[in-house]
Structure formats: C-alpha cells, structure tokens
Amino acid sequence: MDIQGNARFRPKSRYSPPRHKTWSSSCKAIKRVLRPDLIPRIETEVNKLIDAGFIREVKYPTWISSIVPVKKKNGQIRICVDYRDLNKACPKDDFPLPIIELMVDATTGHEALSFMDGSSGYNQIRMSPKDEECTAFRTPKGIYCYKVMPFGLKNAGATNQRAMQNIFDDMLHKNIECYVDDLVVKTKKREKHLADLQIVFDRLRKYNLKMNPLKCAFGVSSGKFLGFIVRHRGIEVDPAKVDAIQKMPPPRNLKELRSLQGNLAFIRRFISNLAGRCQPFNHLMKKDAPFQWDEGCQNAFESIKRHLLNPPVLGAPTPGKPLILYIAAQERSIGALMAQENKEGKEKALYYLSRTLTENELKYSPVEKVYLALFYAIKKLRLISGADPVKFVMSRPVLSERLAKWSIVFNQYEIEYVPQKAVKGQALANFLADHPVPAEWEISDDFPDEDVFSIEVLPAWTMFFRGQREPMVRGQASSSCHPKNKC
C-alpha cells in the first residue's frame, strides 16, 4: 500500500486545492504568561512544525494570537492557537457540510467497507499567501505563522469539505462518503471492493493527499464512522458512549443532570420511549425547583442503564416504499410516529419523536396544534405525510397567517392525504404525545445524531387492541407515497 501518511510531510506544489482565506483586518492579542516547565516542550513542538514545513517565522504581523498548550493522553503537548479574535473578524463561509445522519445511513447494506482518516487533514490545504501572516502566533522562540491551514480557524471545515468534494465529485454517494477528512469506501459486493479502493487510491495519489495508516481499516464489515458503528445490517451506538453512561453516578445537581441529558440526547435515537423513561426528571428541570433526586428519579436512571445493556440496531428506510406518519396533538404536547411496511406487509417503526408545547403554543387552536405536529415532524424527519383536518384546512382559499406560513413548507412536497386506518400506529403516536420530551431537552438541528431513520427494538410495553376504531383514540393518521408508487 502506498497511500500512507506522515505527520512531517512537506506539502508539494503539484496539488493546488482551494486556498484558505481569512478576510480579516488587524488585531494583537494580549500576551499570555507560560509556565517555565512548558517552554522547552513548546519549543520542541515548534521545531516539529518547522521541520514539517507547516509554519515560518514572520516579522511585524498585523495579527498576533496566543498559543494554548494542551496535554495529550500520552503526556506530550499539542500547540493550539487561540484564534477567537481572528474568527470574530472573519465572515462565515456558508459552504454546506454534509448531513451526518444521511451519510451514516448511506453506509449500511454494504458487504465491504474501508475507513480512512486524513493525516493532519487540515494541514494538507495551503493558506492563501496574503493571509498567511493573519495566522501569526507568539512562541518562546519568536513569532510564526502557518503556511498551511491550521486547526481552529472559523471556516477551516468548510474549506476542507469544499476541497474534498471537488476531488471526489464523481464518486460521492456512489462508492465513497466523505465528511471533511473522514472517508469511507463502500462496496455492495466484497469481490469488487479492491477495484473501488484502487480508484480512490489513484485519486489520492493524483492530488498528493496523505492518509494516516494508524487510523485506517480496509476491507472490513464494520467500523466507526462519525461517532457510530456502521455494519452491513445497520447502525449501532458507539460502545464508548454507552460505557460513559453506564459508569455515570446519579446526578447530584442540575449541572450533572444536564450532562446526563446531553449524553442521552446524543444517542436518543437508540432509546425507545426516551421521553417516558425520563418523565421523573422533568420536575428537576423547572426554574427555581429544588434539586431532590428521589426514588423515582433513581429508578428511571437505572431503567435507562438497563435498556442500554442491549441497545438496538438501526436500519434505513427502503427507497421507493410508502412512508406512514402518525401524528397526535394533545393539550400540552405533540407526538409522531413514522413507520414503513416490511416485506411481510407489517408496519415497522422507523422513528419516534415527541415534545412538550411552549407557553405560546399552548394557546393554539386544536387544528393549529395538529398542523404544528405535522410541521415538527417535517422539520425533524424531512419527510411528509398528511391528515384529514390538514386536507380540509389546506383546501381553504384563506388561511391564518400562521397556517399560511406553514403551508408554504407543505407545498414543497407531494402530499397524499388518507383517513385514519391503523389504530395501533395512531395509539403509539398518542402515547408519544402523552409522554413528550421536555421543551428544554430540545437540541440544535446542527447537532450530530439528530434524526433517526429506522429502529429495531424489543417491545418496552404490551398493548392490546380490540380491532376497531374507538372514539378515545385521538390525533390523526397520515401516509406519504413515493411519486412512482401507488398507495
């Protein structure tokens, strides 16, 4: 194998990817005092960067940033530069990063996978010559600036992603997925995997890109990609994340509870009925509420830990098959359940979600709450389904300002409205609405692991139905069909 990396390689001139620019004016940070025992180690790291051709000495720069030595696990230090002031002066590069959930989902169903990580990935892109001195930083040896793109710059990720997409443009989403400097080569049939690898290696060699051999795995059936374990059969939670929760002691204050909340939010797609399991925590999250970790909280905490002993394996929806979305709107909450029929004709749950209503949303009319549930599901799942009241209201020529705003989003999709039929699926949607995720548990759409596409779990409860529609079953059911299929 000739695609290997070396942390001290010198970038060659035959590859000219997009040069990184800062678009900044000038600023000089306050000089920081360094511990005397760190100075020799910092000088050693600076010499390594000089030998690698990453930095050069500079005089009279208009921008000067301070360094922050960070200790590694092996006891050595890494020189980080505090570019906060520089980043504030730089306009944001809006080049879009790929959606992590879609990329992870696209890796399932392949017999052979190869995972590669760039060797000093950001440092393989050159800085724009006129912007090199903007990256200047103080060291005990003097003032230096980067000739290559360093870590910590505001738009470094966007620049790297733009370069990688230009390089692998004809291969993306076919036999390769790329997120910044993380690559995965995927092949449906194992016997064709070497041919795909050869194409990728030729492309890497053409543009003089280096991979870190210590972080590469070739021709495997599973591996870690963007924080998940991907396999031929589906997606699994990273055991390290589960282990962190298993070893976590009961929260003693609100800060520790929020830490637990963040860990659960990251893997919530793997936990069925997370909102119901976390109900005992809700009263602790209220403003000015005393923090009293009672028996109910402890039982809920232990229940979550037991569930994570055997976490489920997620799959991807089958393309071309109709997706069914059940939505429910209660007085103080909304819920939704997305399902899809499998080969046996049985509905399989793909995604559960629910949340409580805000103070303003509590004032909505019942129809507006149903609309809100549909809008919430569209926003989270990027998929669309309909319901009878929605069909009726959408046909009206005059809508309220709020409904008109939401209808603009709905009109982007081909919606087929169907009446409620499946009582079981609707009852599950109602259950989720009755056991919502608290509003303060909502996380940003940019947060990785935001959406779930398919879930396979052991039943957490038993439900019985008499096979007929009951007046007590509330909410609406809806179905979305692929344009090429008939419902």
UniProtKB/TrEMBL annotation:
It holds the Pfam family RVT_1. PROSITE patterns: RT_POL (PS50878). Keywords: Multifunctional enzyme. Residues 9-21 have a biased composition (Basic residues). Residues 1-21 are annotated as: Disordered. One of its GO terms (molecular function) is catalytic activity. Residues 51-230 form the Reverse transcriptase domain. SUPFAM superfamilies: DNA/RNA polymerases. This is Transposon Tf2-12 polyprotein. It comes from Sesamum radiatum.
